[in-house]
Amino acid sequence: MFIDSVVFGRADTTTSLSTSYNHWFQFCFTVFIFLLPFLIFVSLCFIFFIIVHFGIIYPVEFDYQHCLIYIR
After folding, report:
1. How far apart are the C-alpha atoms of 49 and 30, rounded to whole Å?
2. Is the distance from CB of 59 to CB of 66 less than 8 angstroms?
3. CA–CA dist 49, 3 (Å, integer)
4. What is the mean pLDDT for each group of 10 consecutive residues in the chain (72 residues)?
5. Read out DSSP for the chain?
6. Alpha-carbon distance 52 to 70, whole Å?
7. CB 60: neighbour CB atoms within 10 A?
8. Predicted pLDDT of residue 52
9. For 54, what's the count of Cα atoms within 13 Å in the CB-facing half-sphere?
10. Choosing a second label site near 70 at 20 to 30 A (CA), which of 12, 28, 39, 61?
């Protein structure tokens, strides 16, 4: 099986190309679903930082030396 070839290093000659492709697709899909909440959270934080930093919606000033945020 595919898992045996990955875990034990054995060559798997019984699976066809389509079966191997399906396993890789399932693996990539699982990783994508697992990382999706993290990616959404990071993108929202990045978008919020861009909006706040450039004052697009909220006129905010940052004081990076004292870690303060001033709202105008």
Report:
1. 29
2. no
3. 42
4. 52 57 83 91 88 69 69 64
5. -HHHHHHS-----SS-HHHHHHHHHHHHHHHHHHHHHHHHHHHHHHHHHHHHHTTSSS-EEEETTTTEEEE-
6. 11
7. 14
8. 73
9. 6
10. 39
Q: Which residue type, as a one-letter code, is found at position 28? A: C
The closest of 33, 3, 8, 30 to 19, measured between CA atoms, is 3
What is the per-residue burial (b if ≥16 Cβ within 10 Å, else e) of 17-39? eeeeeebeeeeeeeeeeeeeeee
